[in-house]
Amino acid sequence: MTKTAGMVVVLLGSPGVGKGTQGVRLSRALDWAHVSTGDLLRAALRKGTPLGLEARGYMDAGDLVPDDVIIGLVQEHLAGLGPERGVIFDGFPRTVAQAEALDETLAGQQRGVDRVALLDADDSVLIKRISGRRSSASGRVYNVYFDPPRREGFCDDTGEPLIHRADDQPDTVRTRLAVYHELTAPLVGYYDARGLLVRVHAEGGIGQVQHALRGALGV
Ligand code: AMP
Q1: What is the CATH classification number for the domain harbouring 49?
Q2: What is the residue with the minimal CA distance to atom 1 of ligand 1?
Q3: Are 45 and 38 in contact (CB under 8 A)?
């Protein structure tokens, strides 16, 4: 076991690789905060806040929301958590500018990124995971192939209807994968050069990947 109080972990990997599913499980097991910028943006969008409305066009197109918007959102969220709370970032940072801003913000809390787990899976697996993905407004994610709800189309926890994300449609997915390769993949080198990167094979079942992830992170 390594130190866990106030630890900061980043989950890195292509859209559909399972960052959300694994991040939620890990955060529940460790009682850490799970910070998904995608979830924060979707919540802002549902509430119709100015930030949500600004983000919408980018999200629908599969493009990244501008760095300054995302960095502001994360800084505000982190300030509310306090430095003692372990944090798992999912879907953030997505650009080198975001990674640098995160380093600066964490330095202000006398901490930094402790580990970065790169979740890795073949494109054929990613496409099935994305096309089968359904989620509830409360944030629980299912997959019609791998992790279906008990009653088709409805959340097991809340009974609410499940949503097929607009940006999970094939054309948008292609853009998201291209954006990942162009803007986010360079973060692999950014964190590897600092000795923070661990690689996790993420093609197995949810429990299997979680086990591998915890082993790789030492938590
Ligand atoms: P996700 O749920 O992580 O796949 O994010 C869904 C969409 O939200 C992305 O395709 C982007 O449009 C936007 N988004 C989420 N996180 C970020 C981020 N860190 N930087 C820029 N855009 C983001």
Answers
A1: 3.40.50.300
A2: 38
A3: no
